């Protein structure tokens, strides 16, 4: 009897220990499954979405520069640059506002004008990239050929130093006047050494020149203002600069931001094949890409 009792107790003890072992194993497995579940949850978490705000650039421009900027705005937005274009009707404020940091950059001027404005106003603005040339042209409401220009004719030219000199150089190229060779691109009326037709020169703010066409025999007008007035430089101008003009229109900024990622993205977009095609298709020779 004792032997049976002892055997039964031994068997019960074995069964109890086995049950405990199974529970321990199951709990351990359950613990591993939980841990694995937690790790899986961590590993399969979706990557964080880039929620960085786009960098905003405010750029001043005249027409047609503003239209080119608006054309590239969607592509820049995809690269994280939000472009705001502020249009101007003059050549003064775009530089003032870049210098005073109201604008990040501007796009409207050539290097001789930029150099003149820096020197006159104490600016330190810098070119970022050259984009296009706007061939400077001569227009008239009464003449169909430069040969019809009469003795004593009234000729309007821009009153700023660089564009005034540019107009005089173009007139010289047409054989209408002769300039002092030492004057170069900074030529003024005082540098005229020969004036066989006794032309009278009237200096006018560049933006107003199209409105002076009714008052003068000939006006030399910057292409952007000609386009604004509905003039087509390739068909309406009596004569015009050729593609070798040194007056490349520039993207301009400040020393403190010219190398920034956003400005460099803007420069790259302005000199893309898409912009080359846009300029050629839209302006048909009135603007000539330089890149």
Element order: H for helix, E for strand: HEHEHEHEEEHEEEEHHEEHHE
Q: What share of residues is helical? A: 40-55%
Strand line-up across the major sheet:
2-1-3-12-4-13
Spatial extent as radius of gyration: 37 Å
**Strand runs, count:** 13
Strand percentage lies at 15-25%
Largest sheet: 6 strands, mixed
Give the class from helix and strand content and strand pairing. alpha/beta
Shape: globular
Name the average pLDDT.
Answer: 86
Instruction: List segments where confidence is low: pLDDT < 50 over at least 5 consecutive residues.
Output: 1-49
Q: Terminal Cα separation, in Å? A: 111 Å
Number of helices: 9
Subcellular location: Membrane
Lipidation (S-diacylglycerol cysteine): 20
Keywords: Lipoprotein, Membrane, Palmitate, Receptor, Signal
Signal peptide: 1-29
Structure, explained:
Strand 1, helix 2 (65-78) and strand 2 form a beta-alpha-beta unit. The protein has nine helices and 13 strands. The strands form three sheets. A six-stranded mixed beta sheet has the order 2-1-3-12-4-13, with helices on both faces. Strands 9-6-10-5-11 form a five-stranded mixed beta sheet. Strands 7-8 form a two-stranded antiparallel ribbon. Helix 2 crosses helix 8. The N and C termini lie far apart (111 Å). It has helices spanning 2-43, 65-78, 93-99, 111-121, 161-173, 223-228, 233-236, 261-270, 273-283; strands spanning 55-61, 81-87, 105-110, 126-133, 137-139, 154-158, 178-179, 192-194, 200-204, 218-221, 239-240, 248-253, 288-289. It has 291 residues and is of the alpha/beta class. Helix content is 41%, strand content 21%. This is Lipoprotein. It comes from Paenibacillus antibioticophila. Residues 26-52 are annotated as: Disordered.
């Amino acid at each position: 009897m004792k032997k049976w009792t002892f055997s039964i107790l031994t068997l019960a003890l074995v069964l109890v220990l086995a049950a405990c072992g199974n529970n321990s194993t199951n709990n351990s497995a359950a613990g591993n499954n939980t841990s694995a579940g937690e790790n899986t949850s961590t590993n399969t978490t979706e990557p964080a979405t880039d929620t960085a705000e786009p960098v905003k650039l405010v750029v001043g421009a005249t027409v047609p520069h503003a239209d080119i900027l608006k054309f590239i705005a969607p592509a820049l937005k995809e690269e994280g640059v939000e472009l705001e274009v502020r249009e101007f009707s003059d050549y003064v404020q775009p530089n003032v506002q870049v210098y005073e940091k109201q604008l990040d950059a501007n796009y409207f001027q050539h290097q001789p004008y930029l150099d003149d404005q820096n020197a006159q106003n104490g600016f330190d603005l810098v070119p970022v990239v050259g984009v296009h040339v706007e061939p400077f042209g001569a227009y008239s409401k009464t003449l169909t050929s430069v040969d019809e220009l009469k003795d004593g004719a009234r000729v309007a030219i821009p009153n700023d130093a660089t564009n005034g000199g540019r107009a005089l150089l173009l007139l010289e190229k047409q054989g209408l006047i002769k300039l002092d060779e030492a004057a170069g691109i900074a030529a003024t009326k005082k540098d005229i050494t020969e004036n066989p037709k006794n032309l009278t020169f009237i200096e006018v703010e560049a933006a107003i020149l199209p409105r002076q066409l009714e008052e003068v025999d000939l006006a030399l007008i910057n292409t952007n203002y000609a386009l604004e007035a509905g003039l087509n430089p390739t068909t309406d101008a009596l004569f015009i600069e050729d593609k070798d003009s040194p007056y490349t229109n520039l993207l301009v900024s400040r020393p403190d931001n010219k190398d920034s990622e956003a400005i460099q993205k803007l420069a790259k977009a302005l000199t893309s094949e898409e912009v080359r095609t846009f300029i050629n298709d839209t302006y048909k020779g009135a603007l000539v890409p330089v890149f």
